[in-house]
Write a structure and sequence with these properties.
The chain has 9 helices and 32 strands. It is of the alpha+beta class and about 550 residues long. Helix 3 packs antiparallel against helix 5 (about 165-210) and helix 4 (about 140-160) runs antiparallel to helix 5 (about 165-210).
Length: about 550
Amino acid sequence: MHPRRSAQEVLLCDLCETVPLQSHCELCNINLCVNCAVKHLSDSSKRHKVVPFLHRKSTNYHKCPDHADKHCEIYCEKCGVPVCSTCALFGKHKGHDVSDILEKFSAKTESLQKDLEELETRIYPRYKEMASNVETEKAELETKYGRLTTDADEQGEILHREITAIVNRQKSAIAEMKTKHLDALNKNTEEITQKMAELKQIMSDLKSILKLNDVSLTSTYKSRNSQFRTLPPKVRVTLPSLSPQKINKDQLNEMFGSLSPLSINTEHGDTMKSAEAVSSPPVKPLLDEPRVTATIDTGYNRLYSVSCLSEDQVWTYGNNETMKLLNPQSKLLTSIQTKSGNAPEDIAVTRDGDLVYTDISNNTVNLIKNKQIQTVITLQGWRPLTVCCTAGNDLLVTMISDDRKPSKVVRYSGSTEKQSIQFDDQGRPLYSSGPYSDNKYLSENKNLDICVADWLASAVVVVNQSGKLRFRYTGHPSNTEQSFKPAGITTDSQSHILTADYNNHRIHILDQDGQFLRYIHCDLDRPLDLCVDIRDNLFVAEWLTAKVKKIQYL
């Protein structure tokens, strides 16, 4: 037994080896004092689980099948199984490379957690999305095929009774095609649903393994995530069309027109990149001299927000109830008015290209799909401020209470609240509150950090996905002209954090850990909001000029 584990002595921290232990990390299987526990939790590369020492879970060692009095406390690297010391020294595993079972258990546990996280946040949602899209296509069949039937009826009306037989044959052909189309979609749905059921079972099994904390089950676990990264085949169906001809009684059958054949093709499913591959985009260095490539005149008296739909289309809103979609040539592509008739508080674009806006006049978050406005969230006692859409297609919303005291960030899946972020580990508020604290902008980084530009606090506040504070950025020492007042905030493919410095007419670029990299100037005038498109073009909304500047900085 280790000297520090004897009954006559106080149990000490495994890290500093000087202070009595109080906590235990179940992921790393080490004992910690108070100070070391804080430092240990600051390592965000792992999902540490620190609990009071007396509440720690006991490790379930597997008994050796060949030596009943022995526990499997060693891991055979060659065979990939836990073994006892006798098997490792004298038995069938003699001479094999071995390692400490707890180290292997820790690594495997972390691997299981990563697999479960990928399944829950990336893979399963894609399957669910595919199934929803197929259901939508099925729901539209009646309308689309109904149009074909109507076309056939109109042509039959013109030809009157002489064409009745031909009309009936064409309708029969349409119905047959519709049946085949529906059969193909039903088959596709069944394939996707079957895979989703398998995924649910795997996720359930993984949760059970993690909950049991069983060394044998954990160490023998084999990941199947790569198998499901290749999505099921997609069914692509080309709808038939009707090609009518002018009436000629001698050639009625030919002149009625014919349906194009129903085309049902099954494409190979996309293979999703692993979480590791997604987190490593191609490196794009910063330009020494960023340059403005377009200037968009929005037509507002004052401009409040900009959100990218694509590299050549941006949504904007200003000092009225109308939201405008514009191209880089300042051409108005479309416009939509809020349901309440009041100006929105913020706008964002979802992964599907739909527009979301917040409205503090009725405390709602609204989704615009096909120009139809749908209220997805209605708050009680809270006012929604800014909004952004995450990589997992959730909505993040900053909000402040009606009495303007507490403020927080809330994650929603649809209309369901999934997470609330309000306090740090010491119970202190993460975000400012009180009068003039409405100005908070937010964005999700590629590493899933949640970045909030808090105007009143003069700080950029960044927490990780679970809501734990990572850092605060309060400006660069060279920022001496005016106080640092961060407004709009966005992130790019390199995990840079870009925030608008309203008072000093420039953009700050930070790395994902909050280290200042450089400024973007480009003769900006009161920059208030930012967004980045898929090609890392930066769009900056200037409040006073009501113009959007498109800037290349990578």
